[in-house]
Structures are given as C-alpha cells and as structure tokens.
Design a protein that fits this description.
The protein is α/β, with parallel strands linked by helices and about 325 residues long. It has helices spanning about 15-25, 30-65, 110-120, 140, 145-150, 160-165, 260-275, 290-300, 310-330, and strands at about 75-80, 80-85, 90-95, 100-105, 130, 155-160, 195-200, 205, 210-215, 225-230, 235-240, 280.
C-alpha cells in the first residue's frame, strides 16, 4: 500500500496529526498499523530536526557572541568627530564643550567596549549627554541601555522606531517573516529608556554640536541617516552617516512587509542623493570602507583627507538602489 500526502489517499495535504489519526481509524487493521508507524516516524524525524536546529542555532549564537568581544581601535576622523565602534559596527562620537553626542550602541556586548574606547581617546563617558541611533536593530541599539546607564544621557529615537526600541527589538514589521527570530533571542536586546521621539528634519543641538535627522525608512520604518558639519581648519565639511540601505532577501515587496515600504525605499534613495555629503560615514564600517581610509590616514599622515569621499557616497547609494530595483521590478 503506497501512502503519500495529497488527494488520492483521503488525507488532505497539511492536515495535523489528530486529523490524520481520525482518518486512520477508518482503515483496515493492518493499514492502521502501517499508517500509525509512518506518523510516529514522521514525528520522531521532526523532533530530531528541531533538536538539531536548536543546537546549531545555539552554537552559532555563542560563536557570534564571542566574536562581538573583539574590540576595534578608536580613532580621530577629523575635527570633533571620532570613531568608537567595534566589530565593523560603527559608533561615532561628536565632542563639544557642553557635552558629547554618541551615535549608535552596537550589539549588547559592545556597550562596555564603546565606553572604554571613549576613555582611551581621553574623554569621559559621563560627558555624553545625548545618545542617537540609526535604527532599532540589536546590532546598533543593543548597547544603548548600558551606555544610557553609565552616562545618564538622553536617548533620542525616531518616531518610526520608537515602539520597537522600547520593546527591545520586538514587533519590527520591516524584517518580514524574520520577526519570529526575536523569540529565539536573535534580534532581542535590553530595551533602553526612550527619552525623546523625533520626526524627519529634527535638528538635535548640544552647544555648538548640531545634527539633522534625515529619516530614510525601508530597512526599518524609522531608519535615520544623520548629517552634521565637521570643521577642518578653515573648511566646514558635511558628514552623512547612512543608516542602512540593506534590503533583506526574505522581506516581501510586492506583498509589502509594511504598508508603504516601496514608497519609503524610493524616497530614501532620493533623500540621500540630495544631501551632498563630503564625509561618507555609515552604520557599518565596510560600506564606507572606513578602516581602509584609516589605514591610509596612518600611512600618509593626511588627517581628515581620506574620509572625504563624495564619489564613494554616491556610488554606494547607486549600487544599493540598483539592488532594490532588481528586486522590485520582477515582482511588480
């Protein structure tokens, strides 16, 4: 007797085990034994696969956590701008006489490393008065709770990301079906206290420090790219730190992960092109080739010059937009 799911054997595809067992009760005795044996084997296989997946996921998470403890060297980019991030995840410190501003907190493990990097540069983490964030994912917001506690700083979060931030990463519709990973701990972080909620175009000021929030949604609903002036001698340069233009392959666009996601993506590419950046920064160092530029800075003793990269900035936007268009055009 050949048993397979689907029409023809009287067992509907996708039926649960209780339905299948009710069907089995109507079969001849010998067929019942064979069918129950098949169902039992299927359950055992599923349990084994579940256990294997859980074990592999735990090993992967432990390995990733260990790698997060590898510290980057902090360095001076130029003017009052410093890099204090780790493991390729950028955090930027803007210093001023009335206190400092810190952009992004990395993974949860990065909080103490960022505080240490600030100290290595000769600054006091207690002088950080404002914490900003690019977006509410665990690799950029995970360390904010720790940094908030040790500095006493106020955390400013975009309106689109405020609820996800306050929930420690839960409920992010922009990641589509990957939302379930939060329950496995993959996207989870200790929620910081959200002190202020801002909208697109908000200007954050602390003494002479001034940053403009350019909300560039798509990667998250409140993804924020920060622009701010950096003085280099007599020159006043504009730095732009791109939030993220990463489009996850599992995020649906035709059946929108959240209402308006396609309009958001198109608007974000347009907004970033219009910002006219001199200094190209990003929430991930490899996007802006930050460490390569740092190596050149050390080799040439050239100060801020290697980080002035308007062509690289526009090229990154162009390539990211093409990835989006390649995805959305076949779907629509």
């Amino acid at each position: 007797m050949l048993l397979e799911d689907g029409p023809g054997d009287g067992l509907p595809r996708g039926a649960d085990n209780r339905t299948l067992y009710r069907k089995v009760s109507h079969l001849p005795p010998r067929s019942q034994v064979r069918m129950r044996s098949l169902l039992t084997r299927r359950r055992v296989v599923l349990l084994i696969l579940g256990a294997v997946f859980a074990g592999l996921f735990t090993l992967w998470r432990d390995a990733i956590t260990r790698n997060r403890s590898v510290a980057d060297e902090p360095f001076h980019i130029g003017g009052n701008l410093y890099y204090v991030g780790h493991t390729g995840l950028a955090s930027y410190l803007l210093t001023g006489p009335e206190g400092h501003v810190l952009i992004d907190g990395g993974f949860p493990e990065h909080g103490p490393l960022i505080a240490r990097s600030i100290a290595e540069l000769g600054f006091d983490v207690g002088d950080v008065k404002i914490l900003l964030n690019s977006h509410a994912h665990s690799d950029h917001a995970g360390g904010l709770r720790y940094l908030q506690e040790v500095s006493g700083a106020e955390l400013w979060v975009s309106e689109g990301d405020a609820d996800v931030m306050a929930a420690g990463g839960r409920g992010d519709r922009a990641v589509g079906p990957a939302r379930f990973l939060w329950h496995l701990g993959a996207l989870r972080f200790d929620p910081p206290r959200v002190d202020r909620v801002f909208q697109d175009g908000t200007v954050v000021r602390l003494g002479p420090i001034e940053l403009t929030a350019n909300v560039t949604p798509g990667h998250t609903r409140g993804c924020t790219s920060w622009s701010f002036p950096v003085r280099d001698g007599e020159r006043l340069l504009r730095a732009v730190s791109i939030c993220s233009l990463t489009l996850f392959p599992f995020v649906p666009l035709e059946r929108e992960a959240y209402p308006g996601i396609n309009e958001d993506w198109r608007g974000s590419f347009r907004t970033l092109r219009e910002l006219d950046a001199d200094i190209f920064l990003a929430s991930h160092t490899n996007w802006a080739r930050l460490h390569r530029k740092r190596a050149r800075q050390l080799a040439e003793g050239s100060g801020i010059a290697p980080f002035i990269d308007p062509e690289g900035y526009l090229d990154f936007i162009r390539r990211s937009e093409q990835v989006y268009l390649d995805r959305v055009e076949p779907e629509t």
